[in-house]
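pasting for ref
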Amino acid sequence: MNQKKIAETAVGILLAYIGSWVLFLWSGAQITRENMPVYGMLMLGLFFCIRNLVRINDRTSVFHPGHIRSCLLSVNRRKWETIIKGVSALGLAIVACGYVSAELNGAGIILAVVFTGVLYKFLGNIRFYDRVKVCSVGVLSLLWGTAVVISHKIDRYNWVFVTNFGGLDLIKIIITGALCFVIFYNIVEIVTGFGKEKKEDRAFSKKCWLIGALLTFLCWLPYFLSYYPGNLSIDSYASISQAMGTEMLSNHHPVMFTAFVKICLAVGSLFGGMEAGIAVFSIIQMAAFALTLNFCLEWMRTKEVRPVIRICSFLFFAFSPLTALYSFTMWKDILFSCWILLLGIQLFEMADRQAQPDKGDIVRLVVLSFLTAFGRNNGLYIVIAVLAVVLAVYRKSWKKLAPVFSAAVLVIVLIQGPGYDMLNIKKGNLAESLGVPLQQISYTVKYGGNITEEQREFLNKILPEEDMKEAYNPTSANGVKFHADFNNEFLEENKGEFLKVWAEILLKNPAKYVKAYCMHTMGYWQMDTIGYTYCYGPDEHWIHVEDRNILEEITGKNVRHIIEHDLPQIYMNLPVVSLFFCTAFPAWLAAGCLVVLLVKRRGRYIMALVPCIALWGTVMIAAPNSGEFRYVFSLYIAIPFLTAMLFYGKNINSNKKKGYK
């Protein structure tokens, strides 16, 4: 692509972006993250229209008289097909207006007309004979439609269901899914058309990697200097207390992470007090994080990922306020996210080589598996899923792989089980992994579900009924499991009975269980639910840590207000940009990536998605609360990796691609 075409494309995208924004605002349509498929459809339609206007004298332009003449003749020959397509486009356009809450009057009618034109074009690109594409995009569309319909039934301000489930919901899901199918199909068509033939991998440049990491670190430095010695939450203070020996070791905060904190505090003590130790931790974590992210960028260069994607990815890593703030926050989730990303890259490398794993692959897999398993408490389940998939893909090498993988999992289980017991290291409370069942039972109790006296008697031994009703919070299980009267010992001793009671209540109250589950996990699948936990410096808890604004001391300027208030207002409200700060977006991106790989007939590469999918799955099963961003932060930093997978390689199944004009 020459410079002129690049400039034309960039201008076209910018004008389409602004034009869509203006048209949405003018028509009264809502610009939300959940409405982004329709917004994206409008952007694509305007982009292709602008591109054709630019080359109006080109005979391939849809505005060229010759092209218009041939289209009119084609319409006349296929009159009934045109009528059916036009009526379908009009019907879907009305659905699209309802989707974005645009009223069909005044400017809303103009929006509906534009939607009709774009959808008419999009419908013409669908080829139903490609069963894999139709089925995979269809499933994704129905899932999206289901998420939209369920989310509209929930009042997110009061966290209650405003309507019950009914047969009409199924019709709404199908209609919404049909609209999304047309949009997603065309997006997948465009994405699969941007691939190029695979060439030899480029050499990995350590120099580029280190320079990129240094630049990223420097971009984060103003944030760190504004909140010296680092960002600390209540979980951070718990890790510090365990590292100092003032609190008993517990694997609720992974022992490996606590050991790392202890080492940093010990090093810091040589240069000063507590603040120096926390600063050492912050700097080391920032460096490790920057190296990991830029390793991903350099890896993308070796795979000849398009420069525009790599540049945007660097800007995303270096200038995202969220990434910068999290880089020096004392949470286990940050380094854990590094291991998940590296695990995905390793699996992609194995798939791309299309050969049986060698010793280097096995060693890297095992090392990353250990780091993942000891990095966070759901890490073991992710490791088991990854190793099981690798074993299934490389069945021919099972005699070599199975013993190694089994031994690795066994060692992890023995260390985290009997090993921790021997060292008197407490394991995480059982209630931590039962957040979803506790929420479902609490919802059923609070809203008068069908519960027998025997079941009530059992539940009262865990937490008295009235306390459970009062403590229940639809978005977090903390109110119940951390209640002063919550009997965790009884729950530990009767976990089998608890699961039995949970299942019995489920059979009599399925709708209430579904409602409680949807509200408790909403942030991980609903695009407009945001659940960030921000730390701005060391919050005051039971350990005193003195914070400093070193940047202000040096420059005389205090940028904290910009970081805490101005930047969030910008990146959380800009259309499309706000997607990259949405808790659920990376999960949907991974699902879209899965669809594209299936369409491209590159199923082998799907195993590179397993760490992300398994992570999301474990969160959906045992989420402590709704939409806590740091629990899926691994998916957030994997956005460039997932994007690279979307555009990697050509669609090996299609010899002819339909062009977009």
